[in-house]
Write a structure and sequence with these properties.
This is NAD-dependent epimerase/dehydratase. The chain is of the alpha/beta class. It has a domain at 13-206 and 234-260 and 296-303: 3-Layer(aba) Sandwich (Rossmann fold), CATH 3.40.50. Helix content is 40%, strand content 13%. The protein has helices at residues 4-10, 22-33, 49-53, 75-82, 103-124, 159-164, 168-187, 210-219, 236-248, 265-275, 300-304, 312-325; strands at 13-16, 37-42, 64-69, 87-90, 129-133, 191-196, 198-200, 233-235, 254-258. α2 crosses α9 and α4 (75-82) packs across α5. It is globular, with a radius of gyration of 19 Å. It binds NADP nicotinamide-adenine-dinucleotide phosphate.
Length: 329
């Protein structure tokens, strides 16, 4: 049982894993603005300089960022980062849409074992709540879902379907989330999961992440339909705000879809084409996600908590500007 002095010390101290990635960097920025002290974990040896340069003295909220080098597969180093924290945002997970050579080693193990290690350390240090960044890839593809109802948080990705098609990223995210719920239930840990769709927005980190690469490639003429990885898109700033909202709302529980609508990738491509007529965006003529039921307010659970989504046109424009500024376009 934590003493009241321990509780006081932990207040507004949180850990973010994968803190130097696309979503992690935005989450750190959002937390600093709200005055949190952030234990930011990064993969050992990877570049985290932007966490301090883009958040000088913690931003206007006066928060503080402390960087911890920690492979999520290394229980000891993860524990060091989580000790003394009131909350944990588990964001780190290999995020690539490319086909891995060894799916088990490159994707599934870090996703599942990494999540287990983070939860174990969180339980050991009496963390109040863990916010798990899952994905729409733990909801879809699910071919047995009704073709008259929009996807919602009750859907789970069909693992056999994905394995037979060598779609290992959804497998890794689904197994990690299932393991997390099992662990939370067994040990009475307070866990909330968020399921972002394809995240867009300005890149705070120096490298190109997988979801912004989807837009980059579309602008460069790619004909990839994103058949297995698409439900809609969302501004990364909204995702970070939603993650903090879920941490700060005592009544939040379960799974939260975080997308500004559900619609086909072909519709997204059309919007991109209109906004960026100078780029050779492919015109899809057939459904890219056959049978997908569209829905404007698909993230009803987050909308009910008061989250306001940025128009997707703004997310596209912000991403394009950022891709250009960083030399990716
Ligand atoms: N972007 C999206 O559209 C989207 C949508 C839904 C869900 N998500 C989820 O959101 C999370 C972040 O994604 P992102 O878009 O921000 O991707 P990202 O930029 O690639 O970030 C992933 C982060 O995880 C870290 N990481 C991977 N393996 C690690 C390990 N073994 N130990 C420590 N750190 C490790 C990476 O570090 P290094 O790069 O230094 O290796 C990176 O900082 C992931 O869980 C992803 O599944 C993303």
């Amino acid at each position: 049982m934590a003493t009241s002095e321990e509780k006081k010390k932990k207040e507004k101290v949180v850990c973010v894993t994968g803190a130097n990635g696309f979503i992690g960097s935005w989450l750190v920025r959002t937390l600093l603005h709200k005055g949190y002290t952030v234990h930011a974990t990064i993969f050992p040896g990877s570049d985290a300089s932007h966490l301090t340069t883009t958040n000088p003295s913690g931003g206007c909220g006066g928060g503080l960022v402390v960087v911890f080098q920690a492979d999520i597969l290394d229980q000891e180093s993860i524990s060091r980062a989580i000790e003394g924290c009131e909350g944990v945002f588990h964001v780190a997970s290999p995020c690539t849409l490319e086909d891995p050579k060894d799916p088990q080693l490159e994707l599934v193990l870090p996703a599942v074992q990494g999540t287990f290690n983070v939860l174990e350390a969180s339980r050991n240090f009496n963390v109040r709540r863990v916010v798990l960044t899952s994905s729409i890839s733990a909801l879809v593809p699910n071919p047995s879902w009704s073709n008259t109802i929009p996807f919602d948080e009750t859907s789970w990705t069909d693992l056999d379907y994905c394995k037979s098609r060598q779609k290992w990223y959804p497998v890794s995210k689904t197994l990690a989330e299932k393991a997390a719920w099992e662990y939370a239930e067994k040990h009475g840990l307070d866990l909330v999961a968020i399921h972002p769709s394809t995240c867009l927005g300005p890149l705070l980190q120096p490298s190109l992440n997988a979801s912004c690469a989807v837009l980059q490639q579309l602008l460069q003429g790619s004909e990839d339909t994103q058949e297995y990885h698409w439900l809609g898109a969302v501004h990364v700033r909204d995702v970070a705000n939603a993650q903090v909202l879920l941490f700060e709302t005592p009544s939040a529980s379960g799974r939260y879809l975080c997308t500004n609508g559900i619609y086909q990738f072909m519709d997204f491509a059309q919007v991109v084409s209109k906004l960026c007529p100078e780029f050779p965006v492919h015109r899809f003529v057939e459904d890219t996600q056959p049978g997908l039921v569209g829905c404007k307010n698909a993230a009803k659970r987050l909308l009910d908590l008061g989250l306001v989504f940025t128009p997707i046109e703004d997310a596209i424009q912000d991403t394009v500007e950022s891709l250009k500024a960083k030399g990716f376009l």
